[in-house]
Amino acid sequence: xxxxxxxxxxxxxIKETCVERGIELDILDPNRMLLxxxxxxxxxxxxxxxxxxxxxxxxxxxxxYDGILPRFGTSSTEMGCAVLRHFEAKGIPVLNHSExxxxxxxxxxxxxxxAEHTLPIPHTNFAGNLVxxxxxxxxxxxxxxxxxxxxxxxxxxxxxxxxRNAEAVLSTFRQVEEPYLCQHFLSEAKGQDIRAFVIGDxxxxxxxxxxxxxxxxxxxxxxxxxQCIELTKEEIALAIxxxxxxxxDVAGVDFLRTDNGIVILEVNASPGFEGIEQVNEVNIxxxxxxxxxxxxxxxx
Length: 300
Description:
This protein has 300 residues and is of the alpha+beta class. The protein has 3 domains: 87 residues, Rossmann fold, CATH 3.40.50.20; 126 residues, ATP-grasp fold, B domain (D-amino Acid Aminotransferase, Chain A, domain 1, 2-Layer Sandwich), CATH 3.30.470; 62 residues, ATP-grasp fold, A domain (Dna Ligase, domain 1). It has a 5-stranded antiparallel beta sheet. The protein has a 4-stranded antiparallel beta sheet with strand order 4-7-5-6, covered by helices on one side. A hairpin with an 8-residue loop joins strand 5 and strand 6. Helix 1 crosses helix 9 and helix 2 packs antiparallel against helix 3. The longest helix is centred in the C-terminal third of the chain and has 16 residues. The radius of gyration is 20 Å and the shape is globular. The two termini are 19 Å apart.
């Protein structure tokens, strides 16, 4: 498993499940890896030891694995996906392909892909630096949402009540070359949304997320509260379609129920499952491990 923080709930649950089933699981930090291309071979070396130990040994050549399960955060996306591509080139099965993982991590590119598959998404735009912020904002009424392209867990998401505040902040983003998108604010999104947890061809669990604080973001990391929820057949079908559109095996699909129907907000390639396991009786970790074992068997 590629993971920088083994102490996190989801990583611990996957580890526990593997131990219970007698599956050997190594937890590897992608930022400790050295990738080598030499004479048509793909080699991966791993740096062991403490982070700041000057006397640690040289990186060691990694053995081949039966499968790779990526669980790295947004700060490790570039290196993590590079590591995934190396394992893929060696013919090792992965649970979420590198291209799909990278696509899901880019908010604009993933929305383009969802739109390409005629899935319902909010009105969103993305502008080049030669387009003024004011011109970009003119496509919306207020309030509106702005998001940095690679944020997660509600970080990098802003709600602007008026043009003056939006233009001031987004102009600063332009100056520091932080790419962002603007998005129509759906009133139904005020502190609530729904997450469907998709594994393969089925939704294994779902929850609603409601923020108890005065915060428009529903993410559990921003104080949101999870509740068990039943999905309609249409919602289940759309969640699975969105997952397949991005190309993922496992995904957390976030959406809203609005007066005009379902609107998909985001497809997450490495969804946490602490909240969803706590409010549902579904063992997400076991479902994920079972699915991956079956995938490895089919490909072997």
